[in-house]
Amino acid sequence: MPIKTAIFYLLIITSGLFISCDKANNNGTLVEDISAFNNAVSNAKPGDVIILKNGIWKDAELIFKGEGTEKKPITLKAEIAGEVFIEGVSNLQISGNHLEVHGLFFRNGHSPSENVISFRTNEKEVANYAKVTNCVILDFNNLERDQDNLWVQFYGKHNELSNCYIAGKTNGGPTVRVDLKGNQSIRNFHKISNNHFGPRPRKGGARGETIQLGSSFTSMSPSNTTIANNLFEECNGEVEIISSKTNFNIIKNNVFYKSEGSVVTRHGNYVTIDGNYFIGDGVNEQYGGIRIINTGHWVTNNLFYKLKGKSFRSPLAVMNGIPKSPLNRYNQVTDVVVAYNTYVDSSSPWQFGVGTNIAQADVLPKSEIRSARPLRTEVVNNVIYNSEGDPNPIIEHDKADGVTFESNIIYNNGVAIANDHGLIAKELSLTEIGKDLSVPITGFDDVVIYEGFDFESITNDLLGNSRNESNKIGAILNAANVNLDLLDKSKYGAYWFSDVKESKEVKTFNVKSTEALVTALNEAESGDIINLINETYQLPKSLVINKTITIKSEGKAEIIYNGAASTPAIELHPYGKLTLQNINLKGTTTQFAFASLKENMSNHFGLAVIDSEISNFNYALKVYKQSFSEEIIFKNTTISNCENGIELSEETNDRGDYNTEYLTIDNCLFTDIKQNVIDYYRGGYDESTIGGNLLVTNSTFTNCGAKEQNKTLLNHRGIINVNITKNTFENNPVQFISTLWGAKNNVASDNQISNSGKIATEENLKQKLMY
Amino acid sequence: MPIKTAIFYLLIITSGLFISCDKANNNGTLVEDISAFNNAVSNAKPGDVIILKNGIWKDAELIFKGEGTEKKPITLKAEIAGEVFIEGVSNLQISGNHLEVHGLFFRNGHSPSENVISFRTNEKEVANYAKVTNCVILDFNNLERDQDNLWVQFYGKHNELSNCYIAGKTNGGPTVRVDLKGNQSIRNFHKISNNHFGPRPRKGGARGETIQLGSSFTSMSPSNTTIANNLFEECNGEVEIISSKTNFNIIKNNVFYKSEGSVVTRHGNYVTIDGNYFIGDGVNEQYGGIRIINTGHWVTNNLFYKLKGKSFRSPLAVMNGIPKSPLNRYNQVTDVVVAYNTYVDSSSPWQFGVGTNIAQADVLPKSEIRSARPLRTEVVNNVIYNSEGDPNPIIEHDKADGVTFESNIIYNNGVAIANDHGLIAKELSLTEIGKDLSVPITGFDDVVIYEGFDFESITNDLLGNSRNESNKIGAILNAANVNLDLLDKSKYGAYWFSDVKESKEVKTFNVKSTEALVTALNEAESGDIINLINETYQLPKSLVINKTITIKSEGKAEIIYNGAASTPAIELHPYGKLTLQNINLKGTTTQFAFASLKENMSNHFGLAVIDSEISNFNYALKVYKQSFSEEIIFKNTTISNCENGIELSEETNDRGDYNTEYLTIDNCLFTDIKQNVIDYYRGGYDESTIGGNLLVTNSTFTNCGAKEQNKTLLNHRGIINVNITKNTFENNPVQFISTLWGAKNNVASDNQISNSGKIATEENLKQKLMY
């Protein structure tokens, strides 16, 4: 070793010794605990690298402050990317300039503060030119659904979240928010790019966005945030996947894959939504497209593929505004451009006047009436292709008389179109451009392009081809050498993390005793089956369900629960998704058959009861406040001799929340249920919450509702989608079977009713204003 | 002449012959009439010059469309600048690119359309890179005050209004408006520079701005308009001189000289107000400064000099907002910076929570209550100098708890300060920096400068000195070699026009007969005096006043009007400003003493009645709708035996309008006036209209109001400033002398009342909402 080099190393080692006992070399300073970390941070100079030692960092509140330079940022990284686990009550706060964070994995915990990763350390100290990259945040949920927080909160300017995998948020609050309060955070030019936003389960109510850019209170501010090249997969939190609430944002080249929501220009103006893929399955009506509110947005070069969303979730939903709207409500749509988009097999892709509620003027204050139609809006140079013809590609909830339609074409498989607004019929065919992706590309070269104001700024197509030379309408100019794989995970998320679950063999535990049942429940992995061999099981304590489990029997085994009053035979914990099949579950009148936890329901539960019998309980199902299930189903099941039936009605703070997205009762028999036979509640006037969903079908209700205080058998006040069909109601001592909400999607049909009250309809339900 | 040159000239002459009979040479095409003009316009090529022949162009609707280039604009100019007069029913519309207009004089007429000069020719065709320069618009008013219009209306982008003189607008509507409806007019980067905005008389009510940038309906749009280096002189139209209603405008280096209003960030955000001079006279309380609403404005390097405006018109008025304000009302102030300004001899220069109206919650809807205080606002690095100490330099109408005060200093001549928010007391003196202009410059080098976020962008001081090297607080770094003349007209307006009126010798016409009186009235010039020599004049027809005239006598000459019923003895026409002194004016009970025109009051009138007697009329003064006077005064005058007194109450459409700015009754005697003794009305809830002004003092009212329907002697409903003081009320058969509006500036004092009802107060007047 030459002398100079030796001295160099010596110096480094020495300096390492000075700052702590941690190892230091020219690759950085390795720190093993929080105090060493803090020490390293406080001494960090431009170019320094602070390395977190592999392993679990529990209850770590990491404050990363520093002053790097453009050429010499200060870096915080994992010893090995993906092998540093931030767990317990932990978070990361960053402030200063030119800082980078690499390779951390947030899991098995939650944040002590209002965010998991924050680009500031206090109100005055924000981060600029800081980057969080190749990190993962997974299921890092607060203990209660109502404890809202954010997982990544941007402040400052020129910060970046890139190549991260982020999934599983179930508590309230957007996954990522850009905050603009204060001049230090406007014109921020943040970048959110190449991330994989994995599944975000349905939250049940509002405050479940994946990304929110600002808030109505900063909706006048220039943000200039770019969201580009991300994959949004099953981002189902609520109706808005991205809620843009500030000005001049750019949403470009993202893939929205089977995500139950839309990109919404909720507040703010002049947002560019260019070159994105919105991919559905041709079936699910929850997958949305782009919903437009406010002024000056440009929607260009996007592909809408097999979307079946309606109204708020239609591929293009242009809303009515409120005249002179309050700051936090709906401004009129003006000066919007929708050009060069392609719509393939998407139902009624263009909808205008969405959200008009003139009919509800009696129950809503004037400041809630959306009667202001779009103005100076251009819908031009677009292509629609329908394998199955759509008689109504354009729906006007209110008149689109402020919209210019020009140079739009449609292939409609011969089906006549009502209200075509000049759509030009063309014979088109599909060209394959990648995996499960075919679009019309040829057959309309002759269509004269509408040249709107500033259209020369639309320089490229969806694939990046230049529009300068041989331009034409639609999102894609040509498909030569194109073979897209939109789900190619190598382009998104952390390189070291895969969300692909290895397929596991399902294990079946045959149990003969209650003890064996409890042991099996502990030992089983998610997805396993417990098979009850014996005929009868005496159960003295609640069974805990905290994973995906099936409990079944061949011969309808009997479980007799004799635990304490007001405790459940089966207790549904976070992640607990139970299928109970062919079981006869009995209580001794004072207990609950199924219940969620009273608190700390930090993740969703699920319940399917099939071919079973539930009897002699106080409650068949008791779901506590802040508990949420995506689906609850009772099928081919008898529920009898209970004081209460199925209760999901504790979300009474009227913020739009509810306890299950879907409640399905199919081919069941309800007998002698005294009250709360079915009680499913959503409260609060919130036009953009479009759940829950109640289906009651092929079922029979007899002698139920005797103690129901409001004299109604099926209580579902505020639930948006209700279908009561093909049931039999006999001898139920109530006044009403149900009161349907006429203005929403509440319907009843083919029910047989005798001596059971009637099905009423209330057109406009009075609701507490949420805003 | 070389052959080539000869051919060149021949070609030009020939081409001139081809297009019309107008003369053409290499300096341009001279056109004599509108058809030649139209022909020249339709043939114009880049670089062409179209020359309007000298003289009067009557009823000329000029449409100037063309496609010039950056290097070769198409020019429309006067043959000699200032000698082409656009008169009658005329206007100018411009569209296309790179166009210039020079040297036109709009006078003696009005526009047939909604604007005099428009930067578009129809909804689709706007102007870009067009310039109107060295033009004059003078008194080009519509015939009625309520016929709102604009004198210059901007559309498109990159247009300019420069070096123009514009004055005398009396009808409704801003003098200049920038219109942003449509993407073709956003981010417009228009320039309004080096203009002289001459006197705009008080309009009486709203809609009298000198410049309006957009409207609430486009308040979300980026405008990027610059208003720079203009002189605003006596721009008294209403409370807002400049009403900025869009985003990112720049208001820089202007002089606001004795202008009764403020620069107001009415809607929109992120406006820069830098390096302006606000000059008052130390007396007039109508001269305002800067009033702040909304988000992100920067107020820097401004000088506020001898301003006495209060509340809405205080030098710095920071308003309270309405929580979640409707689009057209008041957003909360957030993220505003007020730095490096200097305030000299300006009363209570900083006022916060201006416009708070929490106390009026009973009479106003919730959506009108301004209770949202400023947030995240910085008032720093400012200098205040008070020759006479001001005990309250900071007034908090509502708490300024969201405002940071740092590094502000004050010289207060030893007077103690309440509520100083950390103001640092300093001993300062004034340095003369120009004509009638002295400011504190030294004595505070030691004050530590507050370095707010992005403050490095404040690179210069008011005079253009760099702040990079030896920065300090206040608007001016040093005064070396500075000798400002803010009113140096060579820097503003059209070079060929002067608004300086030559002083004229006042001529006195001594008249002995009615015929001579009428003849003299015709012959007199504005400012002249008519002296009545005889004792009595029988007047069979109305005297017409259409200029500034004094009619007087030495021995109280008697004018007996015996014209038709309901006609006035003296008819006040547009521009008619009469002083009647020492005259005994009598009617025969059915006529009016004074009246305005019923229609076509295209300009203001004025009336002063001094040392006179008015008797035996139906009305003493009848002012019709849409007539307006800046001042009406009755002094040392008796009004007796009239059915009606002084009536100014026809502005009943409740849009905030009224008929006179000031009505003064001083040392008068009212006897036997049956009704409408004084009837002065303003209607409509409009917090920013702060007139009219009624002063009734030292006067005696006897036997008045017998037929007054509402049993009130002095009716002044809706008038903001009322002072009833030192009067005697005797034997007036009314219930109330007056009902004062408690929440506004209505006061009464030192009145002697016997057998005349009482003076009541109504704290909150119910008013019709204007918005």
Automatic annotation (TrEMBL), chains A, B:
It comes from the Bacteria. InterPro entries: PbH1, Pectin_lyas_fold, Pectin_lyase_fold/virulence, PL-6. Pfam families: Chondroitinas_B. Gene3D superfamilies: Single-stranded right-handed beta-helix, Pectin lyase-like (2.160.20.10). SUPFAM superfamilies: Pectin lyase-like. This is Poly(Beta-D-mannuronate) lyase.
